[in-house]
Structures are given as C-alpha cells and as structure tokens.
Amino acid sequence: MRRRFVSVAAVAACIAAGVASLALAADVAALRTAFAEDDVRFRSTPEARLWTAEELVPRGTARTLLGARDDLLFRRAIRATRLSHPELPGISETSYVLHRNDATAWLVDIVQDEGELRERRSAAANLLGVLSFADAIADYENRAKLLEAAGGRFRQAVSLDPANEDAKLNLELTLSRTREFELSEAGGGTDPSPGGRGARGAGAGDAGTGY
Predict the structure, then answer these.
(1) Phi and psi (nearest 5°) for 113?
(2) HSE of 88 in the Cβ direction (CA atoms, 13 Å)?
(3) For the chain (length 211 residues), average pLDDT per consecutive 10?
(4) Can you tell me the distance from the alpha carbon of 108 to that of 113, in angstroms, rounded to the nearest whole number?
(5) Phi then psi for 144, rounded to 5 degrees?
(6) Which candidate, 84, 87, 133, 160, has a CA 20 to 30 Å from the CA of 54?
(7) φ and ψ at residue 149, rounded to 5 degrees
(8) Residues β-bridged to residue 210
(9) Do 50 and 75 form a contact (C-beta atoms < 8 A)?
(10) What is the number of other CB atoms lying within 10 angstroms of the CB of residue 126?
(11) Element of type H or E holding 38
C-alpha cells in the first residue's frame, strides 16, 4: 500500500511539473507576442498599457527566462520620455512631470548599468540629453547649466556608441545653441526663448531605437 502511495505521489508530481512547464511555455509565448505587437502600438498610442501579458506562472518567471526585464525597462523609459513631451518645453502639466521623473530615473539606471549593452546605454544617455535640452529652452535663468548638462549627455552617448548619429546631431545642435546663448549674454540680450527645432525626433521615437 505504501509503495502504491509513493507511486501515485510521483505521478502527481510529474503531472504538476508538466503543467507548470506548459504554463511557463504559454507565458513565454504570450510575452513575445505582446512585445512584438505593442512595439507597433507604441508608435500610435504610447499612452496605452503596453508590453504586458497575463502570466500564469507568478513572480515574472517568464520574463526572467527570456531575459526580458532589461528590455522592458528600456521600453518603459522610452515611453515615459515620450509621454513627458520634451517637444513642448515649459509645460508643467502634472502627468508630464510624473512621466519625466520616471523617465529620468530609469534612463539613469540604464546608463549606469555597465552590464547593459553599450548601444542601449548610449541611447539612454541621448534621451537624458534631450530632456536637459528641452529644459534649457524653457528655463532662461538656468539655460547655460542645462545646455552644458545636455552636451555632457550627448558626448557620453557618442562615447558609448560612436555610431549613434542622433546623439552626434543633438550635440551639434546643443553646441550651436550654447554659442547663440553666449553671444546673447555678451550682447546683453534677454531673449527667453531661442526657438529651434529641438533634438531630432524628440517625441517621435520608436521602442527599442531611442530618439
């Protein structure tokens, strides 16, 4: 009787393990589908709930198995950057500020993660530069420091990935705006809004590519 009980328990354990494996496989497939579909949705509806799937296995096991946590963080950072609307400097709507705070924290984490891909760290540094540049346009009093910070981030981005053309263009634009600001200061100007196009692609980036 005892041997039979042990046998039944072993079979039950095997069945449970098989069910768990099937559930995990389903979670992995669902996450892959969600990432692919939501990368497309992000372009038109960034405010939607993106890159999530109903997971059967708890504690994000599928995300860990896929190594998707870093991918998810990067996507959320880009989404938060876009929803902070850096192309509309000076607008302090509460939702914009909250998204800006999230974006900044996540992007800094990515840049500082030496285990992360250099290309991704470069893209994150470029986005931080975009945010500082947007602040500089709206904040005349602190413009010099903000432009300096933006330039520093763009240089960091180029250093991490010399192929990052967006960062190179953004650095060129920042240096140009800095020279204009210095000339304005030297001439006693007080123009609070230098205008300009802003960083290329600001507010129009696709998930996984940056701005």
Answers:
(1) -85, 100
(2) 13
(3) 50 47 56 70 78 60 62 92 92 92 97 94 98 93 94 98 97 93 68 40 43 50
(4) 9
(5) -60, -45
(6) 84
(7) -65, -40
(8) 206
(9) yes
(10) 30
(11) helix 2-44
Instruction: Tell me the sheet residues that pair with 206.
Output: 210
Q: Are the C-beta atoms of 181 and 144 separated by less than 8 Å?
A: yes
Q: Which residue has the tokens 């931080």?
A: 128
Distance of alpha carbon 129 from alpha carbon 211, whole angstroms: 11
CA 26/CA 72 separation, integer angstroms: 19
Closest CA to 119 of 208, 13, 11, 24: 208
CB atoms < 10 A from the CB of 62, how many? Answer: 22
The two tokens of residue 166 are: 């967006």
Residues 6+ away with beta carbon under 8 Å from 136? 142, 143, 146, 147, 150, 177
Question: Pick from 124, 119, 153: which is nearest to 136 by CA?
Answer: 153
CA–chain centroid gap for 160, Å, is 16
Break the chain into its structural domains and give their ranges: 1-67, 68-211
Instruction: Count each helix (H run) and each strand (E run) in the chain, helices first.
Output: 7, 0
What's the rounded Cα separation, in Å, for the pair 5 and 56? 29
pLDDT for position 53: 58
Q: Where is 204: in which H helix or E strand?
A: none
Place of tokens 């540094």: 125
The SS3 of residue 187 is: coil
Would you say how long the chain is, in residues?
Answer: 211
Tokens describing residue 156: 């960091």
What are the residues whose beta carbons fall under 8 Å from the beta carbon of 20, sequence distance 6 or more? Answer: 57
Here the tokens at position 42 are 């992000």
The amino acid occupying position 190 is T
